[in-house]
Design brief:
Blueprint: H1 2-18, E1 43-53, E2 57-64, E3 67-75, E4 91-100, E5 105-110, E6 121-123, E7 134-137, E8 139-141, E9 144-146, H2 148-164, E10 168-173
Parallel strand pairs: 1-10, 6-7
Antiparallel strand pairs: 1-2, 2-3, 3-7, 4-5, 4-10, 8-9
Length: 174
């Protein structure tokens, strides 16, 4: 019995000497660590995944920060540009909101699109409603997207908030 008490006393002595200062530190609950601060993302990423191709149009899906939002419709993809009938090149472009004299409202504008000017994201249903721009809609069928104004309003609110938050807005088209 003496050996057990002696070992127990040695154990307690070792515990107290492991923690400088308060000898009861060994018996206290560990302090909770502070939660990590969430790193705010300083950009909004728009991805357009082109999926359905016909002789008249290109239909895809649009994602915001990886989350599906709506369908897209563009002109068909061509090797050589035909004015008003050709989709823009795949790539990454900056986006900003500004006033469109043609549509007489504020719309998202893609910046520095090779061989194109004034490429915007806006409502529309068929390739006749676009001159290279990206149309958005909630439903799709061959060469058509529907509920375009509803899809655009939802998308615009999110892009508008990102611009208010001073986030860079990038669109990736593939």
């Amino acid at each position: 019995m003496k050996k057990i008490i002696k070992k127990l006393l040695q154990f307690l002595k070792d515990c107290f000497t492991m923690h400088e200062g308060d000898p009861m530190e060994a018996f206290k609950k560990p302090k909770k660590s502070k939660p990590h601060k969430t790193i705010k993302k300083h950009y909004l990423q728009i991805d357009v995944k082109r999926k359905w191709f016909t002789k008249k149009s290109t239909i895809g899906k649009l994602y915001l920060d990886g989350e599906y939002q709506c369908y897209t419709l563009e002109d068909r993809i061509r090797n050589e540009k035909v004015y008003g009938e050709t989709a823009i090149s795949a790539g990454s472009y900056r986006v900003k909101l500004n006033y469109s004299p043609r549509f007489k409202t504020v719309l998202p504008l893609l910046i520095n699109v090779p061989e194109f000017k004034g490429i915007r994201i806006h409502p529309g249903n068929t390739s006749k409603d676009t001159d290279g721009c990206i149309l958005v809609g909630e439903t799709r069928s061959k060469n058509f997207i529907g509920r375009s104004r509803t899809a655009f309003k939802k998308l615009f609110k999110k892009i508008e908030q990102a611009q208010k938050d001073k986030k860079e807005i990038i669109i990736n088209i593939d």
